Amino acid sequence: MSHKIDISHKTIFFIAGFLGLVWAIFLIRDLLILLFASFIFVSALSPLVERLMKIGLPKAVSIALIYLVIFAAIAAIITLGLTPITVQTSSLTERLTETVTTLMRNNHFDQSSLQQELPNLSHNIVAFTIDFFNSLVTAALVAVITFYVLLDKDKIENQFAELFKNKSNILSLIEKIEIKLGAWLRGQIILSLIVGVFAYIGLTLLGVDYALPLAIISGLLEVVPIVGPILGAIPAILVALLTSPILALMTTILYVIVQQAESHVIVPQVMKRAVGLNPLLVIITIGIGSRLLGVAGALLAVPITVVIQIIMDDYLHPQIKI
User: 19-46 pLDDT, tens per residue?
Assistant: First the structure.
């Protein structure tokens, strides 16, 4: 007995439209990631803007003042630590160069092998330089978009909410998302500070040279999940190796302890308090995000999960109809 399946024109158009939408999202995924990153910064900064407005400052002045304070704080940190960091980093670079040269000599790299590797090295340097300037441009775009979204935040949110049936509930949902995303960003800053301080204390106690720049490297790379802590450990281990293999081993053990604490205790617990996610879910989402979108996916895995969780929680209750 055969069954006839009828597919209407509407069904075909719906499937085609859905696939087209998925493909369009895939094509503009970089732009969407940039916009989402800006939304995170908007979520973190908007409470500060509101506080300044309550004391009588116009919104534009409030936003500009916050930007000024942030840039001034960054400049102050760089200025206060510029001399020791510059001196130690310069010396660190020389020592690392010596270490690499020594390792190459000990592993019998001949002149012809080195010449063969030089084109690859030059290519990598050029690629790194391009990526670095692309990152600067992206950061500048995020800062500009964040500024203008903060300036017209209420208008943008109201226009978006008007697309749905229950405007007040949608605005409430947006507010919940903003609170959680702001907490997530503050959690990331806390994580970087904790790892940087732990690395500095550990390296200082072990007597490893250049503890300050090495700890700063560790703290900065903490924002890159999974591979960041590993990359942050490599320079410290190489520097310790210049003193003795024993010190290099102790430094390796130090970073393994820090990484284990970071992966299984610090990150899950800080993020749980910040965004209310289960520690195991945090680890899983970071792993999934890194596989799907690389570094950007790993960085944004937790906030994306937070947004999905909040939307699902509200959608499963009868208070909101999307």
Answer: 777 777 777 777 888 888 888 888 888 8
Q: What are phi and psi of 209, to 5 degrees?
A: -65, 155
DSSP string, 220-279: HHTTSTTHHHHHHHHHHHHHHHHH-HHHHHHHHHHHHHHHHHIIIIIHHHHHHHHH---H
> Which percentage of the chain shows pLDDT scores above 70?
69
Query: Quick one: which of 147, 115, 175 has its CA closest to 310?
Result: 175
- Which burial class, exposed, middle or buried, applies to 277 when counting CB atoms under 10 A from its CB (0-12, 13-18, 19+)? buried
State the amino acid at position 202 in one-letter form: G
Other Cβ atoms closer than 10 A to 161: 17
Q: What is the pLDDT of residues 152-206, one digit of tens each?
A: 888 888 888 887 777 788 888 888 888 888 888 887 888 888 888 899 999 999 9
DSSP 46-57: HHHHHHHHHTT-
303: which DSSP letter?
H
- The residues of the chain scoring below 50 in pLDDT are 109, 114, 118, 121, 320-322
Measured between alpha carbons, how far is residue 317 from residues 168, 242, 314 in Å?
15, 61, 5
> Long-range pairs for 138-146 at CB < 8 Å and ≥24 separation?
138/34, 141/34, 142/34, 142/37, 142/38, 142/41, 143/41, 143/67, 145/34, 145/35, 145/38, 146/38, 146/41, 146/42, 146/45
